[in-house]
Amino acid sequence: MKSLKMKTTGIQAFIICVTLVFIVEGRDDQDTVAKKILDKISSFLTPKKVVVPRGPAGPGGPSVRGPAGPRGTSRGATTTYVTPNLDFLYVLDSSGSIGSEHFDKAKKGIQVQVDVIDLKTKTTPSGTHVGLIEFSSPAKTHVEFTLRQYSSAAAIKAAVGKIDYDNGGSTATADALRLAKKHFDQYGVRENVKVVWVITDGQSNRGGNPKIPADELKKNGKWLIHYQHAV
C-alpha cells in the first residue's frame, strides 16, 4: 500500500489509496491541502455515462427497440450521466495524543466535507450515506453513527458536532478498520462507491498491523483513504 504525501505548514497529510496512487511533494498552506482533499472527494463523484434502453412493449404494442443505432446502441435508447452515490465512512481518531483542539478541528473539517459531498451527490435515504467510527483504545472504539442513521447533510453535521472527545490511551487503527469492514458488511451492501476516510495523528500502537484489515477492505473492492494530522 502506497501513500500520497503532502508537506504542509504545521500539518503533514498522508493519503493512502488502495487503487490510485498519486505522489505530491512540496510545501502547501492549509487552504491548498484542504482543496486537494476536496478535489479527491470530487474525483469519486465524476458523473458516469449510462445508456438506458427503453423497456419492452406493452400488450399489443410494437417493440420499442428498433434496429441497432450508432456505436451499437439501440434506437430509442437514451444516454444520461449519473453521479455515483457513496457509502462514505469516516474513521476518526480520538486518542490522547490528538488533543481536544485538534479533535474539534477534525470535526469541523468533516462538516465541510459533508457539505461538498452533499453538493455533488445528495445525502438521502436512497442516495449517498455517511457514517462515522470513533476510535482510540480498543475498548473505546465504536460506531458513532451508522451509514443509514442520518439522511441529510444537516443531520450528519449536527451529529458530528455532538461527538465527544474520548481522550483514549492508545491508537488502535487496525481495530477501527476491522470494525469498518464489519460495518460495510452490514450496512454497505448497495452497489455504490465505498470510501473509508481515516483521520489520525500518527502510528497505530495497538491491535496489530493496520495493513492487514486495510488489505481486507481492498479485497472487497472498497477504497481506503487515510488523512493524517501531525500534531
Quick recap:
The chain has 231 residues and is α/β, with parallel strands linked by helices. It is 30% helix and 24% strand.
Structure, described:
Residues 52-78 are annotated as: Disordered. Residues 87-231 form the VWFA domain. The chain is of the alpha/beta class and 231 residues long. It has one domain (3-43, 83-228): von Willebrand factor, type A domain (Rossmann fold, 3-Layer(aba) Sandwich), CATH 3.40.50.410. Helices cover 30% and strands 24% of the residues. The strands form 3 sheets. A 5-stranded mixed sheet has the order 8-7-6-9-10, sandwiched between helices. A hairpin with a 3-residue loop joins strand 1 and strand 2 (12-16).
